[in-house]
Write a structure and sequence with these properties.
Jelly Rolls; single chain
Length: about 160
């Protein structure tokens, strides 16, 4: 009887630790980001790896990275669009400066560096000059530091649809 109770308790504890162990990426992220981060994807540009949160829904796109006081090195957010378009971005409620990397499938088509937080009330809008179907936001200075340029190829860790 004691062995049965011990076995059941060991199984319950095993399940508990398995559920709370998290993925490798969650272990690298500070606890205060775990609650706000959504699904992520690994992206590689010019031999530089970026872990990007995926913004697909209109709510996720509207929220973006706003309200965050910090964005870890080699982290970002990628915004996905079903069809190519010229989107408008703003820096409402942003606390950190960003670089915008405008993408068409797997190519950089434009870069807007050092986009500063905007306290409004008349928010400046940022848009690419050509249609894109993805936009990657990273820390300001990331593109220059890592030698990112227009025309470079982008590799995704999984299919983005």
């Amino acid at each position: 009887m004691r062995w049965a109770i011990f076995l059941v308790l060991a199984m319950i504890l095993g399940v508990f630790f398995w559920m709370w162990g998290g993925s490798d990426i969650q272990k690298e992220i500070p606890f205060y980001y775990k609650k706000i981060m959504g699904k992520t994807i690994e992206i590689e540009i010019n031999n530089t790896k970026i872990t990007a949160e995926i913004a697909r829904s209109s709510g996720e796109k509207a929220k973006g990275l706003s309200g965050r006081e910090y964005l870890e090195v080699n982290r970002g957010m990628i915004f996905l669009y079903a069809e190519p378009l010229i989107p408008n971005f703003w820096m409402k409620e942003m606390e950190i400066p960003l670089d915008f990397i405008w993408l068409m499938d797997d190519k950089i088509v434009e870069i807007t560096p050092n986009v500063l937080p905007d306290k409004g009330p008349d928010y400046k809008l940022y848009s690419p000059k050509v249609s894109v179907n993805r936009v990657l936001e990273v820390n300001s200075g990331f593109c220059q530091k890592n030698g990112l340029e227009i025309g470079q190829s982008v590799k995704y860790g999984k299919d983005l649809k």
